[in-house]
Amino acid sequence: MTYKPKEEERPSLTKKTPLRIIPLGGCEEFGINIMCYQMNGKFIVVDAGAVFPDSSMLGVSSIIPHVKKSFKELGKLKAYIITHGHEDHIGALPFIYRVSPAPIYATPWTAELLKKKFIKYGVPTKDINVVQVEQKISCQPFTVEYVHMNHSIPDASSVFIRTPAGNAFHSGDFKIDRHPDNPLKINAKQINQISQVGVDVLLTDSTNAYKEGFTPSEYDIIKPLEKIMSSAPGRVFLATFSSNFARLKTIFDLCKALDKKLVVNGRSLQDCLEIGQRLGRIDEIEKTIVRVEQIRNYPHNKLVLLVSGTQGEERASLTRIATREHKQVKICETDIVLFSARAIPGNEKKILHVVELLKKQGAEVIQPDAKRQIHVSGHAHSEDIKYLTKRLKPRLYVPVHGSLSFLNRNKELVERTFKDMHTLQLDNGEVLEIKNGEYRKAHQRLEVERLYVDQDSNIPMKPHTLRDRLESGEHGYGCVSGVISRSSKKWIKGPEIEFFGVDEKPVMLRYGAKLSLQLKDELKDQNEYTQEQYKDYCQSFVRKAIFKKYKKRTKILSRIYVV
User: Fold this and answer.
1) Architecture of 19-213+377-461 per CATH?
2) What per-residue confidence (pLDDT) applies to 15?
3) Strand partners, 451
């Protein structure tokens, strides 16, 4: 569904009504980027991201913001405004939209990703509207203008939000790609026009605030990749992020130029190329790309394999190749494996494991470093941040998208560079109020909560449900069951006691039988207990016995009935 913008309307609200800006995620943390802009009991949401769990969160696919209570406090939801299609900006949207539906606005590439994601989770796509850069969306009292930005995914944008109380420029993820070959530089004219309208607050990406200079261009890695691919004695395996279409297009174009065949192995990589083909960003795929089953038909030095698995993911194609589980592809001593991606913090051990397995089989492994520039970031370095800030001339600067130290660094960078510029730091749930060129942190603070998406059912869980799951994994669980006669107070059946995940099964069978006899003996003189008292006593008895023997707080289910 393509959105056709109406003419901009400025709502007639009193200037005493402040614009409130509230992060529900993405401040003092990486991921879960979600920002609310509220005025006069109405609000819009910019991005709705998720973050991947750590290895201790068993059975969880992602962590998302729990916004039901916050949204109710903020008033009427007018729209979701999406800056780009990375998971930390759209991963939570299907779950949040299902509970709080509203129109969704996104650029073409982002809209395609959203539709695919919504279909996967069985969520209707009717509210996904496609917008183009420089278009204005009127959702009173907000007017939102999309601004093209460079990033590591197509159609990334900043948004300029205008209200009667003040204007905000929300950068999203960005960098300033000034390479002469880049046809999609930021629109300096549009940025200048926005500056002239006036920016009360600029909220800017902090991900690479520690890095000096400008972020290198995607075009800077073409020659290093070409040099490796052209001189390779055998096959070249190239692992990169599946969302980075520019990188995929670079590899595709190099294969065409070098007369090599490209094998794409990984569902997410194939999806990315399919979207590129559907949107007219890449053509003549069939002349260059071959199926993995066809690799035996070509000499090794004529093959490039684009594979998933930059982070050592267990089921990714590169990991399966490294562990010799891949059915069609086995490593040879003439193979070169390139990691054209950064290591996400926390994944270093998994990546190292894959690298070691590949080297053990004789492959040469090349990772990004100062000598071989085979990966560039999509996030702003210090000079990119200064470049945007200088041109927008905001009255107030607010760093977002990063942990505390990164927010501090971003804030300090601007304070050093622009002596007279005001800066302010927000934590999740804090409320920034802007009115008539003045700003303050409100006393009010919204509660920030999280949900945990089950990897099998895709149903979000509350923290206590996850806690029960993790405790069962750590301490095991047990069940005491039985039936007692109401009249005679004797056991009709049981008690039976079973344990799972505490010790070896034969050991626990014997121990359960022993405890059953002890419990029966303990209860033989208790003639006045109600059913609930029997349940509580049995549960407490077994729990204490397990703790005494194993020092574990095992969860015990009690299924005792009096009939």
Assistant:
1) 4-Layer Sandwich (3.60)
2) 55
3) 64
